[in-house]
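Need tokens for this chain, all 157 residues.
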Amino acid sequence: MESAIFGAGCFWGVEAAFRQVPGVTATEVGYSGGRLQNPTYEDVCTGRTGHAEVVRVTFDPEQVSYEALLNVFWACHDPTQRNRQGPDIGTQYRSVIFYQTPVQEEAARAALAQLQESGAYPRPIVTEIAAAGPFYRAEEYHQQYLEKRGLAACHIR
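Here are the structure tokens for all 157 residues:
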């Protein structure tokens, strides 16, 4: 198994998108990319921790490629919005890929360049690509939030 970490706005909808992908064996929502150790949701909501709401995706690379997961990431949010997605505003909602290996970094940078060159978006893509640091699992009530409530998705775009 391998894992990948993506931030694309509110983690509830992003997690729901990845849970639909064959080959994804687990998802966890949490916080990453900031300074505060063991942040809470309330801490992250202040916008002062530097953390983004993220989803850690565990996947079987024999069933789904990292590149396929990147396609899900691009499709589930607007990567041209800086520090926001829809009505959710703040650095915790930024578009970010936290790579865990040089191969993931290369694939993420190539995908971003290809998408930018495609002209699919009228504005520049502002997705951050950074080395993964600590991942802090979010509180249990955030895990599979939409699924627990019988919802398939929320406003992602």
